[in-house]
Amino acid sequence: MAVEEVLEEVAAEVRVCTKCDLCKNTKNGVPGEGSPHAEVLFIGEAPGYHEDRQGRPFVGPAGQFLNELLGSVGLDRSTVFITNVVKHRPPENRDPLPDEIAACSDYLTRQIAALNPKVIVTLGRFSMARFFPGAKISAIHGQAKKVDGRVVVAMYHPAAALHQQSLRQTVVDDFKRSIPPALAEARRMEAEGKLGGKPEQKDDEDEPPKQLSLF
Ligand code: URA
Q1: Does residue 195 carry a pLDDT above 50?
Q2: Where does residue 85 rank: exposed (0-12), middle (13-18), buried (19+ CB within 10 A)?
């Protein structure tokens, strides 16, 4: 199946999804959006109020900040893909629960497999936990690591930076310091045939994530 077809199939399923109770008090499922040819995939936590209203990811204040961050590293929103760990808004924007994350997990797995991005950027703790279980965001933010044949960078969530002014500069600096080199390194690795992950097939299961040499 073509990438576009897989993404549309996932989106159609998310829009009518009832796998967990989150769908009950929401207006829209938020599958994610962006280029099917994206080299970089951004994964946030869950839709908030504005995302639920519009059925689109990162369209509220955190989204505006994310757009600025993308611009600061020369990326346009239309060229990347943006999605979330959980595709329906949790009530009052509470943290997603483990069973809600588990219920939604297959959608993200299929999106990652279809997009086959060179770089995955996790935004916040919940998407970080998918790639770096047990890690602390304060310890690994802004570092590019190779996980399951992909380059993954964990970032603080843009909304955290909006609520905690001291984090704002850290997030700005992390984007500039890590995304362009991570993408350059991922392109180089792909050219050498060293990239190309399969999220469902953990090729270095027994090894901890590797830090890339350039950092
Ligand atoms: N926060 C997220 O994690 N995702 C969104 O889509 C919006 C805000």
Answers
A1: yes
A2: buried
The span from the CA of 10 to the CA of 3, in Å, is 11
Looking at residue 198, what is its pLDDT?
Answer: 58
Residues in contact with ligand 1 (CB, 6 Å cut-off): 44-48, 51, 57-58, 62, 84, 159
Bridge-based pairing state of the strands 40-44 and 119-123: parallel
Which residue among 84, 108, 121 is best mutated to probe the pocket of ligand 1, counting the most ligand atoms within 8 A of its Cβ?
84
pLDDT on residue 194: 86
pLDDT at 215 over 60: no
In the chain, what are the domain boundaries? 3-194
Q: Specify whether domain 3-194 bears CATH 3.30.750.24.
A: no
Average pLDDT value for residue range 193-206? 58
- CA of 189 from ligand 1 middle (Å) equals 30
